[in-house]
């Protein structure tokens, strides 16, 4: 390391420095004049270089400290324009210690920060369009701060002090990764790189792991899609050898990865299923979930279940209850389908109507423009003043007519859509109401069942109580049940409490369903209305803008004439 | 036979009633003949009239009948010249059947059972059918088969149009002479169809005059018929639940109705006029009434449904190769039909032509069979079959009991039908055929017959007399420029050429009036074969329009307007003076990767005004599109600096104004880029012009050159491959000769010394062997001596030179020295080689000697003597 930064002043990146860097190059010659005239906005810059380079041979001998000269070249402006990169380096004489002030360069795709003394990767969060990032020859110790750079394809961290590969999860598009001359010592770091499906080029030479005998084989075996390793192409023979050598461990690894993958997929599928049920407002109703929840908080009920004859009763009750739940569930899904179909048809129809209307509008405009070209030429060529004025007036009329036609079309569409939307609104509300009604009647069945069960339970409890009072106590009566059978009130209260809890649960579930269904409905209708209003406003604005433009053109013609 | 009897009774009754049971009156008569229930006198008059007309018509010149003299009978195989026992038996059976038939149905014409063949031997018609599957895949289907037969043979009318011919030649003879009558045609076609697996039958019956004379002048040419456009039923999309209601219609319904009425009236009148016109035309076209209608004998083929997935029975006329439904008007009656296995007589009434006939050959009421026991029990009802059994009893009663029930048809006497590939390719006799249709003439040629590759020409005429040409269609084959069809419209003068894939510029079609450049023309291309994806290029004298598809730069359209050519004063040739371009318009399809506001939809370069207009694509939810217009002005401002870019040089309308596009820098860059692209577009337009010239030149050359492409698989025509093959054969032959030479007979000179013809004695053999060996030894020694002599000579010479060198060393020039040195080295080389050869010879000589000795021991001529000796 013969870096001479000791004699240099470490600096934090600031706006002046960036301005200088940007201003130094960019467009040249004629375009450069224009650029200077107008100034360049940071956000238009696509590529920026802030690295240090040994400047000119003549300097080397005499000045040691000033030999490292930062250069900012190759600013690219605008996606479709190519500018000449600057030839002359900028005379900034300092090393960058901290990355900062870069947030304005929001469209930057290429950033070079090599040959500085940066210690920490930071301040790059805003540069989400970055594709190419060079941080080589710095003093970075850990990979961090790259979580937002999802478009990054080429990352160079050559010659730093990194000891562990991690925090790269967000970089799904990574193709080239350069990590040479670092302090990576654990072979297992390579396994981390398996997640980058597009990774083709990797350099790791100059790391402790690269000294290992098995290094190349290991990398080839664990990263089979890799094409270049340490700037050499991996030949097929090598790949085969590596594969056969590490076959067992890789198979195992693959197996594990597959397992994880499938588990993830399963979970996802389940989640999706649940989402679907939720959309139908009947989640968890395809089983005994509701019934079970009724008994989870019901202490007395659980206790009473130990009474002779109650367990059978409970079982029968549960079976019936679950059947009703299933009914609700299936009905809910069916209704959901119906609603979806309704909504789809509606959207389709509305879309069609809008499309058709747009086509008409486009057609009108095309026709107008054809005429407009002709009349503009005619006006330009017209020499006689009276004719000229007449034509201008005519043209103005045409514009007004176009405006009227377009607005009429739009108003017509608004009317038509309003009618349709209202119809849809009525239908969807009816659908939801019907759904709620039917669910409520099913829920009422649940309640009936509960009441029935309650009566039976009460009967058994009273019988038991009488038996206990009479003295012929069942031996197998659980101990914690005994306190309940003290007198009639206690047992009444216990059974009643259990009953109340059950009813409450059922009511809650029903309320939840009804509320959600209703709110969904209102929300949907609101969104549709809002969207329609937005659409209308946009179209009106568009038409006005267009007409204004036409009018302006006409006005400018008149003006020019007056000047002439 | 009860059925037959009944039928006869019926017939008798009918004839009695009608009193038209004249001799010679046919059972199978058309409707009009039967209905006539006129008084006797009139009937007789009519008859007389008919007979008179018969006399007139029967004497047609017969230029095409081929007489027996042209057939060399002696070369025909034996089966042609005589009958086998089984065939004799069959003929007896047939005679018997015929007698019974004429007895039972006295009013019907005699059966066509066993005409004479080319050797004057009677042969049963079924045995003349020789089922053959042709080795050409093209002949596997009935339509191509029929087309081949009709193309290959030329038609000869029947000697007597009212009678079946007395002779029926074998198909082999017919094929050899390439002509025949309708019976020859249908026999050959039937043989091929049965061979290909169809359920086909020859029919002896009655046809219309047009049919019998192969007269197509009243038929529309099948090639001129337009394909009926498939009327696609527009599926009515059921109006959706939420479809919007159309805006209220405010126009008056009454007015609409009035308008409709008026239009309908107009239409009605037009329709009426058209119908009248059609009726008039029909009148003109209608043929004059044929006096022999219903009496003309014809033979054709019926293909019954069932085999080869034929869904419905149909007729094939072998003359024209056209298929007809069994209800067609042209077919007026059937006497009998046969295939290679059996013979059936039609017992159904043909008063209505063939329209009511039912082709259920298993039904003995409708079809009387000749041989029992062969298959064909199409009749589905079992009960009826029982009836059939009863009928058989009746047959016995009628004296048919002697017929051998298990008797089946003897094999065909005809040799295998063979068509040589040359004949198959040439098709028509002498490779040319002309067919006259109604308002059309079709000419066909064999491929390679015409030097320009013409194989077919269809000329359509405006009038029935074929005097005014309407249009000409010419089909070509094997053209090097892949020209397939040339369509010349005489009335408009428009030519359209169609090409197959493979033209150097991937041309698909070219329509033009004149071949001069810069005229109206349309060229279509196979766009997938072209790098630039050009689909179509239209030209007018002042513009050129190109359509593209599937380009990576999304260009879909380019239109170039040319101005009048500027006259140059200098003496430049016309080529270097292209027309100036006034305007180039280019359209692009949507590039889904770019946002709509940056994706140019149309750009126009107004070259002389130095103006560039851009129109961008419209966003999905918008109705207006961004526009931009660049004006170029090279002006100088007040300070004398060049103005680079000013805001008024770029007028733009943006749907959604953006910040960066307002900048002068952006506009400047955009304009610079556009100006580069303008140059490119101009260049491309210029290249297109050049290409047109090239295509025209190529076409002209091709029309002059007349070279036809020859497939590499075509061994006969492919001169190159033929030459190569012959050369290869020659080389092989020479190689063979050399090999023969190589196996020299080392004993030959010694054997030649012995008196010829004598057998070798052992002593002689011994002598020969010894002589041979000693001779060989001598030769080896001679050779060694020769090498030795050479060696010595070389050595001496070298020594001499060395001496000379040593003597004259001082006076030698450098050149001489060089020469000497090189000589020395060469001489040394020669000496060394000779030495090596000598050594080698010494080594090998004994081995060679031993080898020869062994060879002599094994020599077949000497071996027996020497073996004993050893």
From TrEMBL, chain A:
It is found in: Cytoplasm, Cytoskeleton, Flagellum axoneme. This is Dynein regulatory complex subunit 3. InterPro entries: Cilia_flagella_integrity (IPR050576), Leu-rich_rpt (IPR001611), LRR_dom_sf (IPR032675). Belongs to the DRC3 family. PROSITE patterns: LRR (PS51450). Transmembrane segments: none annotated. It comes from Vulpes vulpes (Red fox). It holds the Pfam family LRR_9. Keywords: Cell projection, Cilium, Coiled coil, Cytoplasm, Cytoskeleton, Flagellum, Leucine-rich repeat, Repeat. Residues 407-434 form a coiled coil.
UniProtKB/TrEMBL annotation, chain B:
GO terms for cellular component: cytoplasm; motile cilium. Belongs to the DRC7 family. Keywords: Cell projection, Cilium, Coiled coil, Cytoplasm, Cytoskeleton, Differentiation, Flagellum, Spermatogenesis. Pfam families: CEPT76_peptidase, DRC7_C, MORN_DRC7. Residues 759-865 form the Dynein regulatory complex subunit 7 C-terminal domain. This is Dynein regulatory complex subunit 7. Residues 429-711 form the Dynein regulatory complex subunit 7 MORN domain. Residues 1-10, 397-407 have a biased composition (Basic and acidic residues). Residues 297-368 form the CEP76/DRC7 peptidase-like domain. PANTHER family: DYNEIN REGULATORY COMPLEX SUBUNIT 7 (PTHR35249:SF2). Residues 382-396 have a biased composition (Acidic residues). InterPro entries: CEPT76/DRC7_peptidase-like_dom, DRC7/lobo, DRC7_C, MORN_DRC7, Papain-like_cys_pep_sf. Residues 1-23, 252-274, 382-408 are annotated as: Disordered. GO terms for biological process: sperm axoneme assembly. Component of the nexin-dynein regulatory complex (N-DRC). Interacts with TCTE1/DRC5. Interacts with DRC3 and GAS8/DRC4. It is found in: Cytoplasm, Cytoskeleton, Flagellum axoneme.
């Amino acid at each position: 390391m013969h870096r001479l930064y000791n004699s240099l002043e470490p600096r934090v990146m600031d706006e002046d420095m960036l301005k200088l860097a940007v201003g130094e190059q960019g467009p040249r010659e004629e375009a450069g004049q224009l650029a200077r005239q107008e100034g360049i906005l940071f956000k238009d810059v696509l590529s920026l270089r802030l690295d240090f380079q040994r400047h000119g041979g003549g300097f080397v001998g005499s000045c040691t400290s000033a030999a490292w000269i930062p250069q900012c070249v190759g600013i690219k402006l605008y996606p479709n324009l190519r500018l000449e990169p600057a030839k002359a380096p900028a005379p900034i004489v300092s090393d960058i210690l901290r990355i900062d002030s870069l947030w304005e360069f929001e469209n930057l795709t290429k950033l070079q920060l090599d040959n500085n003394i940066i210690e920490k990767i930071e301040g790059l969060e805003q540069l989400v369009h970055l594709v190419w990032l060079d941080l080589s020859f710095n003093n970075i110790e850990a990979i961090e701060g790259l979580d937002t750079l999802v478009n990054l394809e080429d990352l160079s961290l050559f010659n730093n002090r990194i000891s562990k590969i991690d925090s790269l999860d967000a970089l799904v598009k990574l193709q080239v990764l350069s990590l040479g001359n670092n302090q990576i010592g654990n072979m297992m770091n390579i396994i981390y790189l398996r997640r980058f499906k597009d990774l083709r080029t990797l350099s790791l030479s100059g790391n402790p792991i690269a000294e290992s005998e098995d290094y190349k084989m290991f990398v080839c075996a664990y990263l089979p899609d890799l094409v270049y390793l340490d700037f050499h192409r991996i030949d097929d023979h090598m790949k085969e050898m590596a594969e056969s050598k590490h076959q067992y461990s890789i198979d195992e690894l693959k197996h594990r990865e597959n397992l994880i993958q499938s588990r993830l997929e399963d979970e996802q599928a389940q989640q999706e299923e649940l989402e679907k049920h939720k959309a139908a407002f009947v989640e968890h109703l395809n089983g005994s979930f509701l019934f079970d929840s009724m008994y989870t908080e019901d202490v007395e009920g659980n206790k009473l279940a130990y009474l002779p004859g109650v367990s059978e009763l409970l079982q029968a009750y549960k079976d019936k209850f679950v059947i009703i739940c299933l009914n609700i569930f299936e009905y809910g899904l069916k209704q959901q389908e119906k609603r979806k179909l309704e909504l789809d048809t509606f959207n389709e129809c509305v879309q069609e109507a809008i499309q058709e209307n747009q086509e008409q509008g486009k057609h009108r405009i095309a026709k107008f423009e054809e005429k407009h070209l002709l009349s503009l030429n005619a006006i330009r060529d017209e020499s006689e003043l009276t004719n000229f004025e007449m034509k201008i007036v005519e043209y103005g009329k045409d514009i007004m007519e176009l405006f009227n036609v377009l607005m009429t079309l739009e108003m017509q569409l608004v009317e038509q859509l309003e009618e349709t939307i209202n119809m849809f609104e009525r239908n969807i509300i009816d659908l939801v109401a019907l759904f709620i009604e039917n669910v409520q009647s099913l829920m009422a069945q649940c309640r009936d069942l509960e009441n029935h069960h309650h009566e039976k339970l009460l009967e058994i409890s009273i019988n038991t109580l009488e038996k206990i009072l009479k003295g012929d106590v069942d031996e197998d009566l659980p101990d914690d049940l005994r306190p309940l059978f003290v007198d009639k009130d206690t047992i009444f209260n216990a059974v009643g409490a259990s009953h109340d809890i059950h009813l409450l649960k059922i009511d809650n579930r029903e309320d939840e369903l009804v509320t959600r269904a209703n709110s969904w409905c209102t929300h949907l209708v609101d969104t549709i209305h809002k969207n329609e209003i937005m659409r209308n406003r946009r179209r009106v604005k568009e038409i006005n803008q267009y007409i204004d433009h036409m009018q302006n053109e006409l006005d400018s013609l008149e003006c020019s004439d007056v000047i002439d | 036979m009860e059925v037959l009897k009944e039928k006869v009774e019926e017939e008798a009754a009918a004839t009695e009633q009608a009193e038209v049971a004249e001799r010679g009156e046919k059972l199978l008569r058309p409707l009009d003949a039967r209905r006539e229930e006129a008084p006797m006198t009139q009937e007789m008059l009519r008859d007389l009239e008919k007979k008179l007309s018969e006399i007139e018509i029967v004497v047609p010149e017969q230029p095409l009948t081929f007489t027996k003299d042209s057939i060399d009978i002696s070369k025909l195989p034996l089966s042609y010249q005589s009958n086998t026992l089984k065939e004799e038996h069959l003929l007896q059976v047939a005679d018997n059947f015929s007698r019974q038939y004429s007895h039972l149905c006295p009013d019907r014409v005699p059966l066509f059972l066993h005409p004479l063949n080319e050797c004057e031997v009677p042969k049963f018609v079924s045995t003349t059918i020789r089922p053959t599957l042709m080795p050409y895949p093209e002949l596997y289907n009935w339509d191509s088969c029929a087309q081949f037969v009709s193309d290959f043979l030329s038609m000869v009318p029947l000697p007597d149009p009212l009678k079946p011919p007395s002779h029926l030649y074998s198909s082999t003879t017919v094929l050899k002479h390439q002509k025949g009558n309708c019976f020859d045609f249908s026999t050959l076609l039937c043989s091929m169809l049965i061979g290909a697996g169809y359920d086909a039958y020859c029919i002896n019956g009655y046809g219309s005059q047009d049919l019998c004379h192969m007269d197509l002048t009243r038929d529309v040419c099948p090639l001129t018929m337009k394909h009926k456009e498939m009327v696609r039923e527009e599926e009515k999309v059921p109006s959706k639940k939420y479809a919007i209601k159309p805006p209220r219609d405010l126009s008056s319904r009454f007015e609409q109705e009035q308008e409709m009425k008026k239009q309908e009236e107009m239409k009605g009148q037009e329709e009426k006029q058209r119908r009248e016109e059609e009726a008039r035309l029909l009148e003109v076209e209608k043929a004059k009434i044929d006096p022999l209608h219903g009496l003309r004998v014809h033979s054709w083929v019926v293909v019954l449904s069932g085999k080869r997935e034929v869904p419905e029975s149909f007729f094939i006329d072998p003359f024209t190769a056209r298929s007809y439904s069994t209800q067609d008007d042209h077919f007026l009656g059937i006497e009998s039909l046969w295939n290679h296995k059996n013979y059936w007589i039609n017992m159904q009434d043909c008063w209505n032509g063939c329209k009511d006939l039912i082709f259920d050959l298993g039904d003995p009421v409708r079809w009387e069979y000749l041989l029992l026991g062969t298959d064909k029990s199409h009749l589905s009802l079992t009960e009826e079959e029982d009836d059939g059994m009863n009928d058989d009893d009746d047959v016995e009663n009628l004296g048919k009991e002697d017929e051998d029930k298990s008797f089946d048809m003897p094999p065909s006497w005809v040799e295998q039908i063979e068509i040589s590939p040359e004949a198959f390719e040439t098709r028509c006799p002498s490779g040319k055929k002309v067919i006259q249709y109604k308002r059309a003439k079709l000419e066909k040629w064999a491929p390679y017959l015409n030097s320009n590759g013409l194989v077919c020409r269809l000329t359509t005429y405006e009038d029935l007399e074929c005097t005014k040409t309407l249009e000409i269609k010419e089909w070509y084959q094997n053209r090097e420029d892949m020209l397939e069809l040339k369509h010349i419209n005489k009335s408009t003068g428009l030519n359209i050429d169609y090409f197959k894939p493979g033209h150097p510029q991937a041309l698909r079609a070219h329509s033009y009036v004149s071949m001069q450049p810069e005229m109206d023309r349309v060229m279509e291309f196979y766009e997938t074969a072209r790098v630039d994806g050009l689909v179509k290029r239209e030209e007018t004298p002042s513009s050129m329009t190109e359509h593209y598809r599937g380009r990576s730069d999304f260009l879909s359209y380019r239109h170039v307007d040319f101005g009048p050519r500027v006259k140059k004063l200098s003496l430049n040739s016309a080529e270097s003076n292209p027309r100036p371009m006034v305007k180039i318009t280019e359209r692009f399809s949507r590039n889904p990767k770019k946002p709509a506001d940056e994706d140019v939809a149309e750009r126009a370069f107004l070259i002389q005004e130095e103006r560039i207009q851009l129109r961008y694509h419209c966003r999905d939810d918008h109705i207006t599109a961004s526009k931009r217009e660049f004006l170029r002005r090279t002006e100088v401002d007040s300070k004398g600096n060049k103005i680079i870019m000013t805001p008024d040089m770029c007028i733009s309308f943006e749907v959604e104004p953006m910040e960066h596009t307002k900048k002068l820098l952006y506009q400047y860059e955009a304009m610079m880029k556009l100006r580069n692209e303008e140059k490119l577009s101009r260049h491309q337009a210029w290249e297109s012009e050049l290409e047109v010239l090239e295509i025209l030149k190529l076409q002209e050359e091709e029309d002059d050159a007349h070279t036809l492409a020859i497939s590499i698989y075509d061994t006969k025509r492919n001169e190159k491959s033929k030459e190569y093959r012959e050369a290869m054969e020659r080389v092989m032959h020479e190689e063979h000769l050399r090999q023969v030479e190589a196996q020299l007979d080392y004993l030959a000179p010694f054997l030649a010394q012995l008196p010829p013809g004598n057998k070798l004695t052992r002593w002689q053999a011994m002598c020969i062997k010894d002589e041979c060996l000693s001779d060989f030894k001598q030769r080896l020694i001679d050779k060694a001596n020769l090498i030795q002599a050479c060696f010595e000579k070389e050595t001496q010479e070298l020594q001499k030179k060395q001496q000379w060198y040593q003597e004259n060393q001082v006076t030698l020039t450098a050149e001489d020295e060089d020469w000497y040195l090189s000589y020395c080295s060469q001489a040394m080389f020669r000496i060394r080689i000779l030495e090596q050869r000598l050594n080698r010879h010494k080594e090998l000589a004994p081995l060679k000697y031993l080898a020869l000795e062994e060879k002599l021991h094994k020599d077949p001529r000497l071996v027996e003597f020497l073996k004993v000796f050893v």
